[in-house]
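Data availability (excerpt). The following record was deposited with the supplementary files.
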Amino acid sequence: MDPTNREPEEYGREDDRSEDATEPRRQSREALTPDFGHQAAQQSRTVRLTSGSFLLTVNPVDGSEIEPCRPGEQPPTPVRRTAAQRAERERAAAPPVPPGPPAPRLPLLERQDERERLVRLLARGRSVRLTGPAGSGRTALLNAVAADCADLAPDGVVRLSGHKRTVTDLLYGLFETVYEAPLYRPDREGLLALLHGIGAVVVLDDLELGGAALQELLDATPECAFLFAATAEVPTPAADTDLEEVFLSGLGRGTSLELLEHVVERALTDEEANWAGDLWFESEGLPLRFVQAGALLRQRDEMRADPQSPHGPEDDEPADTPFGRIEPKDPPLPSLGEGAAPAALLASRLSEAARETLHFAVALGGEVPHQAHLPALVGDTHADAALGELSQCGLLSPAGPRYRLAAGVLAQLEAGGYGDDAAARARSAAQHYAWWAGHPSVTPERAVAEADALLASMAPLLPGEAGGQAGVAVLLARSASPAFAAGMHWSAWEKALRIGQEAARIAGEVAEEAYFHHELGVLALCAGHLDRARAELEASIGMRGALADKAGAVAGRRALALVEDRSGTPAPGAGVLAAEVPHALPPGGVPAAPPLFPRHIEEPHTLVSRQVPPPPAARAPARVPGGLPRVFLSARRNLAAVGAGALLAAVLGTMVTLGVTSGGEDPEGRDVTTEQSVTEDEAGQDGPPTDEPAEDPVSGDGPAGGAVSPGAPDSAVPSGSATPSPGTSSPEESPEPTDSSSGSPSDPPASGDPSPTVKPTRPTTTPTSSPPATSPEPSPSESTTEPAPSETATGPETTNSASGPAESATASDAGTGPESPSDATPAVA
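Predicted structure:
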């Protein structure tokens, strides 16, 4: 069926086919494609585990979700494993036995003194560091000592691998070996409390720690005796570390020849013994070199026994000549250089599948894929047998539950040209592992066992030089990181997230980069690094907000709310987080809200009420950082504004009262009569009517008394009045009350004399004007400006303009300059 042309029933239209008729066809489709029907469940597979006091839900779709562990959901107390359980777990954690004929069992030669000394030190509770060169047989000696110390400690012997492991990995590995605690990872404090009670002999191979990290491991386990195996390149312990040192050297010449005979399973010829003596001098008696040399001799024996071997000599058939019958020559012994670095020669005589496996191992930095992956990677159904070939040749060494290339083999193969196509091999392996890690049948434990190979396949793709390499790394990290988290191998989880985040940045996949930032934030929160968690989560929320990823943004905000709850310093916009996550609030309840009253900024001659706007991050949420709804804050602000308005009205009323009481002895002079109204002739004029200028009190010019200007606006004030201003009034000025209904302060005088003694003449008729209206309360949102008295204007007389109320208000606001109206009194409406 064409996916773009759907069937009619998919659009809600019925056809003549019944449900019973279509059921057999649906069942036949499901039988042919059984995996397609469960693909959606694969993508949404989640795992819930407990990390300290957090309940972590590993969600591979939107990102892991974290919340405090509620009462009653705490995991049970970890219990110790029994001896049988520890033995079963150790067998499961051992590397798999390679297919094919078993390799000869080699004895431990010339190590009896070191073996007995190590056992004595461990029996007394002392920790020992066994140092020797790579290939000196440290692993074989550790196996023998571990068997001798099986009954020394109450918790038995614990085998750990230090290959690419941090001190935190080792501490949690020890905890998981001794205690039975499914889906539980204690926090740092709980881990140390549990480790203090462990009494075991810990055998740790391939140690890569030294200095303070090694001291931290010893301090965390005071009841354990450690047997470390390390090379000389590993940093030495601190000077005050209570640790015994045992050095391991190579074998003697006779012991080396005896080991070579055990590998070949026959006695050496004189030619072979001389060749082995030269090899002992060249390799300083390292047992690994003689195991590989024995593999060369076995291949030589196979070529001699099978003349049809593809690796045999060309003249392997007998020939008759005139001088007699010539027998075929034996294959020559390898040269001394080939015996000291035999990896390339050994690989050339192996099967094609074994050589392909070596190509992938070189591309993965020495990590050998599990034998179950070899058929898919190599393309041969019998490629799993290649692991047995490589193991018998001494090209592999165990590393935890897997194998890796033996010491020095990687450099030898790279010199032989096995690393020329490393980038293509790494990309092919990454594509295979991306499919495998996301398959529903793969458990987190299996993914953790292959963690080193998965991480090694990502690393070469990170620069992204070839097209699509970064995208493949993103896909693998996206598939593997949830499995690492669920398997509680969190160092591998962090490495996969770091590589995936960088690869997503290179590839420009913003959605995937946001996912990796979110997971890194959750991981940092579980580890207690709150600052790092906040930075990662904020980056993820910003990216997901830009992509309109609502589900992912909600998961990020919830985790960020938990970070702020633990840190105790709420960030801007945390109120919306508290609304979505009620448990993120502190135990004491809702924190105190910020100040509700706006700040006031006082400027010269002006008191302006300005509300400081909130920061940009706090404008969008519907709640404030205290968790209070914004409607409550609005009510409080309204109450505050009403109070401020009432206070301002009281102040203005007091000022007006003071102005009335100090206005002079004859308040009746301010009355207005009807005789001073505008006449019809004056109202019909084109221009505004003008009045005679008021008499100057000093010069006496003009009419005596204050003549009222016809049509004057209500906001006009008597001549000589001054507007009071807080902090700016002069002893020579006396404020006059204003009869304006606008409630604004009166205009300052425009005449040259600021004397307050000049008053308008008393009217001769009965006043008919209505009483002045009281000033309404100003709105709290408006700014009240009280200008200071202007400077006196010099010059001749000024005229009054019969402008309307709007122009009068404009002039009143200006209040200064020679254009301001003067000697104006309110007119009767």
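Summary of structural features: Residues 1-43, 312-316, 572-635, 663-829 have pLDDT under 50 and may be disordered.
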